[in-house]
Automatic annotation (TrEMBL):
Positions in coiled-coil regions: none
Record keywords, A-Z: Ligase
Protein name as it appears in the record: Actin cross-linking toxin VgrG1
Domain Gp5/Type VI secretion system Vgr C-terminal trimerisation: 483-591
Pfam hit, one: Phage_base_V
Entry-linked Gene3D superfamilies: 2.30.110.50, 4.10.220.110, Baseplate protein-like domains, Gp5 N-terminal domain
Species whose genome carries this gene: Paraburkholderia domus
EC id: 6.3.2.-
Name of the gene this protein is made from: vgrG1
Length: 663
C-alpha cells in the first residue's frame, strides 16, 4: 500500500523502501568545500523497514518550489533507525530517523598508506574518487603540475583528498538533479551562476518567516580583521644559494585592504621547489583570509538557497548591501505541512527556514586549510629497491629509491613500473663541497628513514640496519670485539675492501684488506714507527724511486739475498767502510776498472795470488813467486770488462684520488 502523497510539498524516494516513506522533518547543513549532512524524521505505515536494507542506498528528498520546479537534497543513507513503531494505520505510523550524507562521505570510512609518483593533485583526487562510484565534474581552471612524491599516510581517503585540495585552493560543492548528486571540483568562483528560480531575493526585515512569502528576513554584513599579506618560503637543495636566508620566498597581497596596517602571515612550505608553485600557494593563502574578511550572514525562507549558488539582494535600506552574493554555507530546517493527526504539530514552525553565510561575488572563495598534515612520529625502516639485475641505483646527488613497509600495494613485477617512486636523499656523516664521507646504500639493504618535520612527503635516509637477509660481516657474539668497515665487490660480490678493528684485549689489531689495488698518495711527509718487527712480502716486483737522498740505518745485521742479478749504478762516488773484514767471493770473475788510478793500500801486506804464483807486498819487502817469473819477457795483461748495471724500472704513480673517478 503506497503512502506517498503526490500533492505533498516534500517527497522522499529511496529504492529499498519504495514509496512507503513520508517526510516529516529535515535539519542539516552544507557548505562549500565541506561535507553536507541532513537529519531526517520519516514516517511509514511499515514497521519492518530494516537498516541493512537502506544503508548505503541513494535517497532523494524533493522540495517543491513556488510555481513550477523543485529543489532536491540527494545523498546516501548513512544512518537509519526506528524510533517509534506504528500500528499500521495513518493515525499511528512508524517513525524513523535517517542521516543522509553525500557519497563523498564514504571516503571517511577507508584509510590507506600509499604514495603517488609524478601525479598532479587533480589526477590523485580523481583516482581516489574512482573507487567510490562518485559522479564528478571537474571545473578547475588552473593547471597543476605533477608532484614527484605525494604520500597518503595513515589518513582516511577523505582527509587525504581534502588536505590536498585545501592546500592547492581547490574546493567542491554538490549539484542535485534527477535523484543524483554530482561532486563539482573548482578553483574559481567564476563557475558559479545564479540560483535557479532565485536570481534575486528581496529583503524584508519586518516579515516573519512563513510559507506565503519567500524573502530574506535577517541580514548582517560587516568585516573581520584579517591577514593582508601571505608569504611562503622553502629550502630547495638543488638551489641552495638562492635558498639561503629567507629561502625561496613568494608573496601575495590581497587587492582590497579593509584594515590597515596590513599584517603578514608567513608559512614554511614542505616541498615546493618551483617559484611558480610558491606564488600560487601564496595567492591561495591570502585569498583564504580575504574570503573571511567579509562577514555576511542571513536568514531566509527562500527555498532555493544553496551553497554554490549566487543571488542578488534587493530591497535593503542600505543600498550598498544590494549586491550580488555567493552562498557559502546554509543550515536548513524543513517541516512537514501536514500530519497533525499523527505527530505533535506546532503550527508556528515555518515550513522552510534557512540560516546562511555569503561572500561578495567579486571575492574569491577558498576553503580554509583545516585538514592537518599527517605527521610521522619517528624514524622508520625501508628497503632499497632498484632495477632487476642491478646492485646499486643512485643519481648525481647520491639519492636512492626505497620501498616502505607500510605500502599497501606491492611493487609491480615490471621493473620500470616498480621504479616509479621518488628519489630519497641519504644522510652522510660529513658533506662538504666535493669532500666528506659518502656511502650509497645498495639494493636490498634495509635503511632507516626519517622525515623532515615529520612530513611523509619528505623522507630522508639516515642509516642502515642489518636483518635476517643481510647479516653482519662476522658471526656474533663470537666476534663482538670486532669493528669493521667492509665493502662488497660489485657486480656479483665475492670480493671486498675492508678496514677492521680488533679490540680484543692483548690481541688488538688494525687490519686492512684491498681486494685488488692499494694506493696511497702523500703530498708531504709520511712517517711510520714500528715498535717491533716489520715484514714486507711482495709476490711480484717491487719498485722504489727516491728523487732526493736515501738514508738507511741498521743497528744490527743486514742480510740480503738476490737470486738473480744485482745492479748498482752510482753517478758520482761510492764509498764503503767496513769496521773489520770485507769479503768478496765471485764464482767466476771479478773485474775492477778505473778510468785513472787504482790504489790498494794495506797496513800489513797485500797479496796477489793466481794458481800457484803470488806476489806479496810487505812493509819491508816484496816477494814474488812463480814458475817461471817473466820480467819484460813478452806476454800481455788482461783487461777489465767494465761494469754494465741494469737500470731500474720506474715505479708507477699512486692514484692521487682522481685516477678512478668517472666524469
Amino acid at each position: 500500500m503506497t503512502t506517498q502523497d503526490p500533492n505533498r510539498h516534500v517527497t522522499v524516494s529511496c529504492a529499498p523502501a519504495g514509496k512507503d516513506l513520508l517526510f516529516l522533518h529535515l535539519s542539516g547543513t552544507e557548505e562549500l568545500g565541506r561535507l553536507s549532512e541532513w537529519r531526517l524524521d520519516l514516517l511509514s505505515m511499515r514497521n519492518d523497514l530494516q537498516a541493512a536494507d537502506l544503508l548505503g542506498h541513494d535517497i532523494s528528498i524533493a522540495l517543491a518550489l513556488p510555481g513550477d520546479g523543485e529543489r532536491q537534497f540527494n545523498g546516501i543513507v548513512t544512518v537509519f533507525r526506528i524510533v517509534a513503531p506504528g500500528d499500521g494505520t495513518r493515525n499511528r505510523m512508524a517513525r524513523y530517523e535517517a542521516v543522509v550524507r553525500p557519497r563523498l562521505w564514504l571516503l571517511t570510512r577507508a584509510s590507506h598508506s600509499r604514495f603517488f609518483y609524478e601525479t598532479s593533485v587533480l589526477d590523485i583526487v580523481t583516482r581516489v574518487l574512482q573507487d567510490y562510484n562518485i559522479d564528478v565534474s571537474n571545473k578547475c581552471q588552473a593547471s597543476y603540475p605533477p608532484m614527484q612524491h605525494c604520500a597518503q599516510y595513515r589518513e582516511t581517503d577523505f582527509a587525504f583528498v581534502s588536505r590536498l585540495m585545501e592546500h592547492e585552493g581547490i574546493y567542491y560543492y554538490f549539484e542535485h538533479k534527477a535523484g543524483k548528486h554530482t561532486l563539482v571540483l573548482t578553483d574559481s568562483s567564476d563557475v558559479h551562476g545564479p540560483i535557479d528560480h532565485y536570481p534575486s531575493i528581496s529583503y524584508d526585515a519586518w516579515h516573519e518567516p512563513s510559507n506565503e512569502k519567500e524573502c530574506i528576513y535577517a541580514w548582517s554584513s560587516g568585516a573581520e580583521l584579517q591577514t593582508g599579506k601571505y608569504e611562503v618560503n622553502e629550502y630547495d637543495f638543488e638551489k641552495p644559494s638562492s635558498s639561503n636566508q629567507q629561502g625561496l620566498l613568494s608573496r601575495a597581497t590581497r587587492p582590497k585592504v579593509y584594515d590597515p596596517p596590513v599584517y603578514t602571515m608567513q608559512e614554511h612550505l614542505s616541498g615546493h621547489v618551483q617559484s611558480g608553485d610558491g606564488d600560487r600557494y601564496a595567492k591561495v593563502g591570502v585569498e583564504i583570509h580575504q574570503a573571511r574578511n567579509d562577514s555576511i550572514s542571513g536568514r531566509s525562507s527562500a527555498r532555493g538557497i544553496w551553497p554554490g549558488g549566487q543571488f542578488k539582494l534587493e530591497g535593503h535600506a542600505c543600498d550598498a548591501q544590494n549586491h550580488d552574493y555567493l552562498v557559502v554555507s546554509a543550515a536548513y530546517e524543513i517541516n512537514s505541512d501536514v500530519y497533525a493527526s499523527t505527530v505533535r504539530h506546532d503550527p508556528s514552525l515555518p515550513f522552510f527556514d534557512c540560516a546562511f553565510t555569503a561572500l561578495r561575488k567579486e571575492n574569491h572563495f577558498r576553503t580554509e586549510r583545516l585538514t592537518p598534515q599527517p605527521v610521522v612520529a619517528g624514524p622508520q625502516t625501508a628497503v632499497v629497491v632498484g632495477p632487476d639485475g642491478e646492485e646499486i641505483l643512485t643519481d648525481k646527488y647520491g639519492r636512492i629509491k626505497v620501498q616502505f613497509h607500510w605500502e599497501q600495494f606491492a611493487p609491480p613485477a615490471d621493473a620500470d613500473a616498480r621504479m616509479k617512486r621518488c628519489w630519497v636523499r641519504v644522510s652522510q656523516s660529513w658533506a662538504g663541497k666535493r669532500w666528506g664521507t659518502f656511502f650509497v646504500p645498495r639494493i636490498g639493504q634495509e635503511v632507516i628513514v626519517d622525515f623532515v618535520e615529520g612530513n611523509p612527503d619528505r623522507p630522508l635516509v639516515t642509516g642502515c640496519v642489518y636483518n635476517a637477509n643481510t647479516m653482519p660481516p662476522y658471526d656474533l657474539p663470537a666476534n663482538q670485539a670486532l669493528s669493521t668497515l667492509k665493502s662488497n665487490s660489485t657486480k656479483g660480490g665475492g670480493g671486498f675492501n675492508e678496514m677492521r678493528f680488533d679490540d680484543d684485549k692483548g690481541d688488538e689489531q688494525l687490519f686492512f684488506h684491498a681486494e685488488k689495488d692499494h694506493e696511497t698518495w702523500v703530498k708531504n711527509d709520511m712517517l711510520s714507527n714500528v715498535g717491533n718487527d716489520r715484514h714486507l712480502k711482495v709476490t711480484g716486483n717491487e719498485f722504489v724511486a727516491v728523487t732526493g737522498a736515501r738514508h738507511d740505518a741498521v743497528t744490527g745485521d743486514q742480510n740480503a739475498q738476490v737470486d738473480g742479478n744485482a745492479s748498482l749504478k752510482v753517478a758520482q762516488k761510492l764509498q764503503e767502510k767496513v769496521g773489520m773484514d770485507y769479503a768478496i767471493d765471485a764464482g767466476m770473475n771479478i773485474h775492477i776498472k778505473a778510468g785513472m788510478n787504482i790504489v790498494f793500500e794495506a797496513g800489513a801486506s797485500i797479496t796477489l795470488k793466481a794458481g800457484g804464483a803470488f806476489v806479496v807486498v810487505g812493509p819491508v819487502s816484496v816477494a814474488v813467486s812463480g814458475t817461471p817469473i817473466l820480467l819484460n819477457s813478452g806476454g800481455s795483461a788482461g783487461s777489465g770488462s767494465g761494469s754494465s748495471p741494469t737500470a731500474p724500472s720506474a715505479p708507477k704513480d699512486a692514484d692521487d684520488g682522481t685516477k678512478k673517478i668517472k666524469s
